[in-house]
Design goal:
By secondary structure, this protein is α+β, with helices and mostly antiparallel strands. It has three helices and seven strands, in the order E-H-H-E-E-E-E-E-E-H.
């Protein structure tokens, strides 16, 4: 199995980052403007990226403010059965956010594209938490 792992440093408190990654308001600004989410273990969050299918993640863990973990239950077949986690570590002047997208079955072109796009996601998170405005999918310039 293969994993994508990236870390971003954000000048914001861990609680603010946790809220950004678990609420409709935060994920709307960070990831996609088309979503149905609830910060609740067991809920299935739904994200739409205009690609003719929904991406759904079941919320497995919400340990405020340190950890969030989701399981992909519907999406592109390469994502189904993968896990997405966010480890949030408050430090003296910044907060480290480590994103892990784990359990990929193989290294593919899509895996590599997702690796790049997770970097965008973390940059959008940083902008939102530090400046109040992120760059969700619909506002990105491709």
């Amino acid at each position: 199995m293969y994993n994508i792992e990236q870390t971003q440093y954000v000048k914001a408190p861990a609680d603010k980052i946790f809220d950004a990654l678990t609420t409709k308001e935060g994920l709307f600004e960070i990831w996609t403007e088309k979503l149905i989410v609830k910060p609740e273990v067991g809920f299935i969050n739904e994200f739409d990226f205009d690609d003719n299918y929904a991406t759904r993640f079941k919320v497995l863990v919400m340990d405020r403010p340190e950890r969030i973990r989701w399981e992909c239950v519907e999406s592109d077949q390469e994502w189904v059965g993968t896990f997405l986690s966010f480890d949030i570590e408050q430090r003296e002047k910044t907060t480290a956010v480590t994103l892990k997208h784990s359990n990929w079955r193989e290294l593919t072109e899509f895996y590599r594209a997702c690796n790049y796009n997770w970097g965008w996601f973390l940059y959008s998170l940083k902008l939102y938490c530090e400046m109040g405005k992120g760059i969700p999918y619909q506002r990105r310039q491709f």
